[in-house]
Design brief:
The first copy, chain A, is α/β, with parallel strands linked by helices. The first copy, chain A, is built from 15 helices and 18 strands. An eight-stranded parallel sheet of chain A has the order 3-2-1-8-7-6-5-4. The first copy, chain A, has a four-stranded mixed sheet with strand order 11-12-17-18. In chain A, strands 10-9-16 form a three-stranded antiparallel sheet. In chain A, strand 7, helix 9 and strand 8 form a beta-alpha-beta unit. Chain A is elongated, with a radius of gyration of 25 Å. Chains in contact: A-B, A-C, B-C. At the A-C interface, helix 8, helix 9, strand 16, strand 18 and helix 13 of A face helix 5, helix 7 and helix 8 of C.
Amino acid sequence: MLIDTTDRHYEREFVRTFFTSPTAVEGEDDSAKMLRSAAQLRGMQAPDVWVPDNEDATAPSMREEGVENIVDVVAEYGADFPGEIHPRVVWHREDPELRYQGFQQMLRVATDDSGAIEHIDGFVIPEVGDIDDWKKADEFLTIVEHEAGLEPGSLSMSVIVESGEAELALGDLRAEMGRPANNLERLFLLVDGEVDYTKDMRAMTRTGELPPWPELRHNTSRGASAAGLIAVDGPYDDIRDEAGYLARMRENREKGMTGIWSLTPGQVVAANTAPLPPEDGSWLLEVDGEEVDLAEVDGKHVYDGDAVTIEQSGDTYTLSVGGDTRELDEDELREEVANMAAYVPGMDDIVDSMEEFEAAKEAGRGAIAMTQSATLVIDGVEIEISRDRMWDEATYQAAQTPVTLFQDVYEHRPDQHEELEEMYGEDVVERATAVGS
Amino acid sequence: MLIDTTDRHYEREFVRTFFTSPTAVEGEDDSAKMLRSAAQLRGMQAPDVWVPDNEDATAPSMREEGVENIVDVVAEYGADFPGEIHPRVVWHREDPELRYQGFQQMLRVATDDSGAIEHIDGFVIPEVGDIDDWKKADEFLTIVEHEAGLEPGSLSMSVIVESGEAELALGDLRAEMGRPANNLERLFLLVDGEVDYTKDMRAMTRTGELPPWPELRHNTSRGASAAGLIAVDGPYDDIRDEAGYLARMRENREKGMTGIWSLTPGQVVAANTAPLPPEDGSWLLEVDGEEVDLAEVDGKHVYDGDAVTIEQSGDTYTLSVGGDTRELDEDELREEVANMAAYVPGMDDIVDSMEEFEAAKEAGRGAIAMTQSATLVIDGVEIEISRDRMWDEATYQAAQTPVTLFQDVYEHRPDQHEELEEMYGEDVVERATAVGS
Amino acid sequence: MLIDTTDRHYEREFVRTFFTSPTAVEGEDDSAKMLRSAAQLRGMQAPDVWVPDNEDATAPSMREEGVENIVDVVAEYGADFPGEIHPRVVWHREDPELRYQGFQQMLRVATDDSGAIEHIDGFVIPEVGDIDDWKKADEFLTIVEHEAGLEPGSLSMSVIVESGEAELALGDLRAEMGRPANNLERLFLLVDGEVDYTKDMRAMTRTGELPPWPELRHNTSRGASAAGLIAVDGPYDDIRDEAGYLARMRENREKGMTGIWSLTPGQVVAANTAPLPPEDGSWLLEVDGEEVDLAEVDGKHVYDGDAVTIEQSGDTYTLSVGGDTRELDEDELREEVANMAAYVPGMDDIVDSMEEFEAAKEAGRGAIAMTQSATLVIDGVEIEISRDRMWDEATYQAAQTPVTLFQDVYEHRPDQHEELEEMYGEDVVERATAVGS
């Protein structure tokens, strides 16, 4: 039987969410209960990539049953699941037994009579080591494809980077992917696994929290960029700390890492939403290295912290920021505040600016100045500021990233259209899907 | 004469301290005085690795005498020295004369009739460049072993990473170590040398202090992790600034770099102690990105800074952190404070948690929640908080790092047993040496 | 015609400034107006490297005319221009048409009858990818040299690192430059291009500002160090924010990246000046991780912020830093303040210290202590502090970097002699040009 593989969609450019579910939980009436409920998520609650997790999330004694559950649940619900499906199997760069088990798990899932494989986009391989170890997994996938009668290369492979070796392999990826004796072109996601990475690096923190590992995330993001893949950050354990999760994702996006692991449907919603531009523009103030969002009140942007104070006495203003106090005249005050302030464009603004630049370019101009003006209120004092930014081709293309992301989401996740239209309004959605193409 | 090499102990997994002593000081009655006193250090004052330093710490004109001093002092005291002994010789990637001198120095130390080599575990090679330069030093060591009648590979080699080339070589190490034409398996420590690295990178700071070089430390730690070696940070010059030294080590441990250079016996004590878990658990508060330790008073944990204030008025609390003020009800206050607080487990706690998880695993559970509760006192207001953390296999293994370190220290440093038992109590020491194995 | 290439000066060790000018601006009477005015800059306003920019700064439709303008303006003004001249041509790792255009642009500039090429030191290639892509540009330069009758290797090549691939290539450079089938020894500058890099990495910030990319800058600086090249940071867009530009350059120097892009003559002055040691020494206080410069008043160094307060009551001092308050006696206060304080040496001090160390070394001493004393005034309280620093050979050589930079500037930029003598005084300039050689 040759299975039709047309409903795979490898053309996704972004993945926001990587959501793992245990494949089999002991002591439940239905050990597949969590799989079954995850498979029925829709809209912003459904991840871009769903990972039935037959490795760390599932007890070793339950993994046999886990394979059966994957097959059953995906056969039943897979056709309607709005995201991609990538089960995680066991693997370890230092353990041939685990690697053989991983191979067997993939083979069983792929060749099951239920046809579940028709809805499975690829597999996730954890604990990889050197690039030669990645090739072993790749070869097993090639064999699996052959045994299951699938097109060569039709199953994607994603890896969890959770060792120094794997981090180093990220630098070889681009060159190795072209070699004729492997099928590494099947690579899809590069996912950081900071818990095991921390163990492998033998790092310690006082509180047991994970170190931030900025270099690992940079190297993963760069590896993905150089090899045309997608970078995803590891799990954020403290599932009640939504502010921390948001801050982590913001940091990641500044590194070019758009995706993140999600452990709960709540984290999925947060992570599906966070990388999209906000509905409305807003202003922030940079105070002592921290960004403070200003509240909009009657069209003015109000700072209500107390780390910045301004006292007026005649024409003189005393501006105090943290421990630093200065006497300024009105123009100097405006300049200081303008330097502290920044505008966070909303989706509408971004689309406007892009359209404006496109028009300028057609008229033969290579660069235009975009101006942003506002009234800020700090400590009761109103300050009119305006900021220019030069836009050239490069600025335009960089600004395009969130819009391209939006378009990618819009194309591949029809189940989120309604929520997106509620968020932005139909008109903005329409213009945002059209701009820049 | 075939020398018995059985008292070498290459199985050390961790090195906390790398202590250098000048090999010959001019103008002293006994030019070997500093070597002699270092050789007699014991307990927490004795380093894990002692480095008679015939390079930068010793004036070029004294290095001939330095070789003799090494031989004499190690022959006399080496058998009883509790740590490993690794003399540093001269070397430079761009200077064949220095490399030849380094070769001669090792040869003289190794073939001296005193039998000093019996107590020497390896040599430290500074100023290495590309991996091919490392191989030159490795080859000299192979010849030295042969001439001295030692087993091939019995002398270890540690390098100082203090150039861009050497930093890049860290990425090749794992692959190169397996090649048949070298003996790079003898590698032991990868030590950063930030003073010369700063020069080599032509970096400048306003005050002449060293830049922090976080990427270098990451890459060294990762190189060590990938090649099964041990990463050690460079010297901390400001020997009176113990708080700075402790902060640096904490940063390093978060990068997986457990060892550090020590310039004085005081620094040795600090660096031998710092990576071990504290005796007792404690709480800290994260305020504006800084961790503030709370003092325990009558079983409560008291914040006595003034960056956080709480004012109560009826059921409403006004929480002010830095410049940020919010009105909260009791539950919200508890949540805010819980998010700011973190528990620093003591050795006892770590062993408890590990034992608890081991029991859960045997009972077939893959993950359990560990809860930590406490009463915090902030600005006179008492707040009961409790924090959960999920433990799975990966968490367990990551938490194991400090315990493995402790066990490694306990195994290889009998001279520190007494101090360790004083610090933790005999019972905790006993359980800590048994857990997780 | 064999052109005389003697006025090329490849021996520059440092480049402070990389100043781009559009080659042709539409709608002006003279489309070369900006080129012409840049060509006439002198002294601190003139960059070390001037880049007639026939890529992003110039509209695509104007680039044909841009080539003519480069040739005309350089033929007329090039002989007298005090810095090096490196036009930027078009290139893209993914676009053979752009690469061919870049080749043609270089060929036209080099073979023009005006002899402009006599004053051109090399070309800047943007948007490079893997090292194999760099080799394509190198090969075109080899052909251009041949066609123009230039010595092989006489034209240098600088690249803009603005993709993940190019960042990875930085690690291969040292090994690849030695290969016989290329002329990559012609490489000169490694310039970061963060705008396009951000796009290529698909990174996003809320405000559209560029992410800081510390790892990219480290890798560029390390690549330059390992291959004997010069690292230059990309453009700082917010041209009115001089404080931000200075802070960025300070950060860069701590990474060993001495050069930076300049977009205006004002930025050129700032960037030519910033890496040179200050005229006079000064003190700073580190408060909450930030460095606050102290003002000198009557030989004392005064802190006038309000983040640090001291209250005296009898023999007891209450020191408050940020939210942290402590009771100290006089000696403890002195120690605390000494730990917070740091001395920023002026050119005079650096030369003094180097001379002192040179004398000590000649007298056979390998290390000496340098002491710095001062009276600090904090919150009205006077505190006498003194700080020691050990100087050994390595310290000496690291301290030499700013002096070597100064000497390099002095040698290659006679047009800046007058301004340097005004800044430092003739005597200091004389000693600074002599020391350490």
